[in-house]
Amino acid sequence: MLEIKHLTISKQQHVFLSVESLQVAGGSVLTLMGPSGSGKSTLLKWLLGEPLPDFQIAGELWLNGKQRDQLPIHARKIGLLHQQGDLFPHLRVLDNLLFALPRKDPRRHQAALEALEAMQLSDKANAWPHQLSGGEQARVALMRALLAQPEALLLDEPFSSLDTALRGTVREWVFAQLKQRDISVMLVTHDKEDAPGTIISMKELTHA
Ligand SMILES: Nc1ncnc2c1ncn2[C@@H]1O[C@H](COP(=O)(O)OP(=O)(O)OP(=O)(O)O)[C@@H](O)[C@H]1O
């Protein structure tokens, strides 16, 4: 369960975004929708733990019973997935996956190969990202995010670069993977069709 409590984000002493209480259960998806500039990225950055020096922030972030808002980015166990451009272009597919796994883990190579097998992409281990189709890139990017074993995942327009035919298939696959692992998901999208569960309009949270 991901929980935001008593969050206010202010800009120049003016409250810009506030969330009294918001919960996302493990395995479910909460979708944020709103126009450009309504604060979606700002909220995702705060959840991730990225610095927001131009804002004043108060509030708590809890994940699976532990408070995380004071933890540094790498200790929060929150992953981010955006458009397919996510993969490192200068690393082959297998190396992209290895990047998510701790160097000390003696099973990391095996784990990356198993992930490729689960995605039916074993034959692409040595391919460069640009040699994959959009759907294949999206699957590798998700798998890389999952190998880092996040407890929550933020999806920022993750399907927007896929064509309509592929989009539905990849979307179903992604949400099934996340549900299976009990991960709390926050999704930002401009397309209602992408949203599998509850939708929150940024209008309810912002006071611009
Ligand atoms: N570093 C910053 N310093 C000051 N203001 C900022 C900063 N970053 C964003 N803002 C402002 O905060 C508001 C929210 O921006 P944000 O990027 O969160 O919107 P968004 O909903 O993600 O928009 P988009 O859909 O275009 O990505 C905007 O008014 C923006 O101009």
Automatic annotation (TrEMBL):
Q: Which SMART domains match?
A: AAA
> What Pfam families does the annotation carry?
ABC_tran
Q: Which UniProt keywords apply?
A: ATP-binding, Nucleotide-binding, Transport
InterPro entries in the cross-refs: AAA+_ATPase, ABC_SmlMolc_Importer, ABC_transporter-like_ATP-bd, P-loop_NTPase
Record GO terms (molecular function): ATP binding; ATP hydrolysis activity
Q: Does the keyword Isomerase apply?
A: no
What is the top-level taxon of the source organism?
Answer: Bacteria
Entry-linked Gene3D superfamilies? P-loop containing nucleotide triphosphate hydrolases
Report which residue ranges the record marks as coiled coil: none
Domain called ABC transporter: residue spans: 2-208
What is the designated name of this protein? ATP-binding cassette domain-containing protein
Look up and give the organism this protein is from: Pseudidiomarina gelatinasegens
Q: Give the classification, highest ranks.
A: Bacteria, Pseudomonadati, Pseudomonadota, Gammaproteobacteria, Alteromonadales
